[in-house]
Amino acid sequence: MRIVKVFNDNWRFAAEKLELNAPDNEFEPVVLPHSNKLFSHRAVDSNDYQFVSTYRKKFRLPEERKGRRVFLDFDGAMVESTVYLNNQIVGSHQGGYTPFSFDITDYLGSGENILTVYLDSTERPDVPPFGNLVDYLTFGGIYRDVYLRMVHPCHIHQVFARPQNVLTSPALACDIRLSQYQPDLVVRGILRDQHGKIVASTQQAVGSETLTLDFPAPLAVELWSLNTPALYTLELTLFEDTVPLDTTHHRIGFRTAEFRTEGGFYLNGKPVKLMGLNRHQTYPYIGAAAPARLQRQDADILKYELGCNVVRTSHYPQSPHFLDRCDEIGLLVFEEIPGWQHIGDEAWQSLVLRDVKAMIERDRNHPSIILWGVRVNESPDNSALYTRTNALAHELDPTRQTGGVRNYLDSEFLEDVFTYNDFSNSVVDPIHTPHLITEFGGHMFPTKTWDSEDHRIKHALLHAQVQNLQMGHDKIAGAIGWCAFDYHTHREFGSGDRICHHGVMDVFRLPKWAAYVYQSQLPPEQAVVLQAATHWTMGDRAGGSNHRLVVFSNCDEIDVFMADTHLGRFQPDRATYEHLPHPPFTVLWPPGFNPWTRDFDDLRIVGYIGGQAVAAQRIASDHTAHHLKLDVDAAQLWADGADMTRLIVKITDRYGNILPYAIYVVHLELEGDAVLFGENPLPLIGGQAALYVKAGQTEGTITITARAPDLPPASGTLALVEPDS
Question: Is residue 80 annotated as part of the catalytic site, yes or no?
Answer without folding.
Answer: no
